Amino acid sequence: MEIRLAYQSRPAGRQSRVCPLALLAGASLLMSAGCEKKEAAPPPQPPAVKVAEVIQQDVPIYSEWVAQLNGDTNAEITPKVQGYVLTKKYQEGFPVEKGQLLFEIDPRPFEAALDQSNAQLAVAQADLSKAETDVARDTPLAAQNAIPQRQLDNDKSAEAAAKAQVDAAKAQIQQVKLNLEWTKVYSPIDGIAGVANSQVGDLVGPTTKMTTISKVNPIRAYFSISENAYLEQAQRIAAILHSASKTGTRPVEYIQANEAPYPSTGQIILINREVSSQTGTIQVAAEFANPNAILRPGGFGRVRIQTGDNKDALLVPQVAVIEVQSAYQVAVVGPDNKASFRPVKVGDKVGSNWIITDGLKPGEKVITEGFQRVRDGMTVNIEPQTQTASAEGK
Tens digit of pLDDT for each residue in 65-81? Predict the structure, then answer.
C-alpha cells in the first residue's frame, strides 16, 4: 500500500506542517482493520432428550364397565297402622341398629280398641259359661226324658257358638295388641338411615314411605355388559364370571367418581339369568366391604376386572406416544443417535404405559422428553438418565 504524505498550502505568513507520525499511526490502523478475518459461528448442539427402551412382557388385560352403587339391603320403612306421628327418634343420615326406635305413632286409639276387645272377650266368656251350665243341667234330664232332646241339642249349639265367640274375641285382642305394638316403628336392619319423609304431626298409613334404611356394609356395584361385547368374548367372559361367582377368586376393582381406586377389592356375587329385552345387556353385581360407609347408594363409578393376558406385549410410556388427528406416532432414536418419527398402532393402557401393537420392536429407544425440539433425521443427545418402560401398575 502506497502512503503519500501531503502538505497543504497555507496563506502567506501562516504556513504549517502535518505531523508525519500521526499519519503513519492512522495508516497502520486502516491496514489492520482491512486485513482482519471474520471468525465463523459455532455449530448448534444436538437437542437433549430423554428416552425409554421398548420392553416386551406379558401384561394383564382389563375390562371396565360403568357401575352404580346400591345397598346390600334397602328397607323402605312404612307403618303398618294409620295414625299421627308423635316423635322421630333417629338422626337422619346416620347409622342405626336393628331394633332401634325410629318413629312413634299416637297409640291412644289402639289402647282404646284394646280395652273394647277385652270387654268383648269378657262378654263372650260369660255367654260360654252360661251355655256350659245349660248343657250340664239338661244332659241328665234329657237322658230321663224329662226334657225334649231338642232342648239339649240347642244347649250344645249355644255352647259351641259361645266358644267360637270367645276364640274370636281373643283373636281380636291379639290383633289390637299388634296394632298397638306397630305404633312404634323400629329399624329392621343395621344400616344408614335416610332423610325422613314423615315429620311429627303427619298422618301416616300403610302406604306412607317414612324413610329408607340401606345396609351399606357390604355394598354392591351393579353394572351391565352389552350383548354385543358379551358375544365377542362370550367364552372367556362367561368362564371368568362364572368362576368368580362360584369360587370368589376373581378380584374386582372399583374406580370411584373422582378416579381414585377404592382400597378394597370385591367379588362378583350376582349374574342375571337373561339378557334384558329393553337394554340388550346382562346385569352383573360385585360386592365390596364398606365398613366406614365411604361408598353410598346411588353413587357412580367403574368396575375393573382382569379378563385375560396379553402375551409378549410391547410397552412404552404414555408420554412417548404422540397423537395427531386420531393417528399415533413415536420418535425413535437409532444407534447413530438420529431421531425419526414413526407411526404406530396402540392397544390398551397399562398403568403409565401404552401397549404398542404395531410399529416398534423390543429394545428400540423412544423419546419421552424433548421430542418437541426434534425434527425427522436430526441427531439428538441422549441424557444419561435413561428411563425404561415398566408394566407395573394397572
Answer: 999 999 888 999 999 99
